[in-house]
Amino acid sequence: MSRKWERMVSKNTKKANLSRTKQGKAPISTDPDRPVVFKGRSIMLAAFFIVVSLFLLFTLTKTEGDKMYWYTTLSYLVVGVLIYFVRRPYLRVTKTNLSKRGLARELVLGAENIKEIVHAPGQIIIELTGKSPRWVYNKTLNRFDIAAMAAKLKKFAENNKISYVDKTV
Predict the structure, then answer these.
(1) Residue 152: inside a domain, yes or no?
(2) Rg of the chain over all Cα atoms, to the nearest angstrom
(3) In this structure, is residue 122 part of a structural domain?
(4) What residue numbers bound the domain in which 7 lies?
(5) What is Dmax (Cα atoms) for the chain?
(6) Which of 54, 104, 130, 146 has its Cα between 20 and 30 A from that of 92?
(7) Does the global pTM surpass 0.85?
(8) φ/ψ (deg, to 5) at 148
């Protein structure tokens, strides 16, 4: 198909799917090139802020009129809850790129910068070329769906000619 025809089909499919979702029906088709996003939970950082909040609450001195102490304690609790429910770590897999959330921005990694992908029991390790640190996603610490991630990353590795090592067998 020509590119113009593909764009027209994609545009009409989006319109039809939008109207079907408004009617409460299932979409008629999905875009195979659409990125797949695997979301986890940031348990450690959220737990750290909640523990600091509880520490401040239990070490409260019995002073009168000190409202800043209560605001600080409550702020740590709110930040911990927000990190757990709102700021979730993710791995986005597109045709030629992988991306994740960094400290202040989204980190995008092209297929040419990946040395290998290792699927170990309960975790996925993405080894990078150069001195960049590896990306590690595990089930116990961040609550990722490792089986689904492994299947999609295996297909990604085959399409982009990247070494894929399965250590679960």
Answers:
(1) no
(2) 22
(3) no
(4) 1-30
(5) 75
(6) 130
(7) no
(8) -70, -40
